[in-house]
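#lab-general

N.A. 3:47 PM
ok so I finally got the sequence cleaned up, no stray characters, all 169 residues accounted for. can someone with queue access submit it? mine expired

B.Y. 3:52 PM
send it over

N.A. 3:53 PM
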Amino acid sequence: MEKVQSEIDKVIGSNEPQVIHRRQMPYTDAVIHEIQRFGNIVPNNLPHATTQDVNFRGYLLPKGIQVIPLLTSVLYDKDHFVKADEFYPEHFLDSNGKFVRKEAFIPFSAGKRSCAGENLAKMELFMFFTRLLQNFTFKALPGATLDLTPVVGVIGSPIPYKMCAIPRV
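B.Y. 4:20 PM
back already:
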């Protein structure tokens, strides 16, 4: 949080919002991407159907068969994310601290069936997250520990816990 707030202060300051592009804030963008990757909110995608016979890893998937993509298998792939089981924003940064797009980053799915609202969601996430950390510091309640293990279900939602939002001066 401190690194994100430092980058926000450097690029935006404490002024009212202005036109800022994500490229000007690579660490903040990397943190948002890592939150989405690590949070893995929709681990199982919606069902799809093959439009033709497909040979996948030696298995024949006939035309019309229902397929449910498991996004977790990609978002936690150690071939693409060196510390796949840890929250590590550096997954999305090169050695110079520049943001790097990852082919395996698919929280909105991929291809023709990806989320139609992906671009809007990314923009809103960036603005919302940046504005919150520009104005508040978040801390757990005294003595509380934060458990990042999701509640198992159709979506991966966090375990409820209380936080303190302390205004930044």
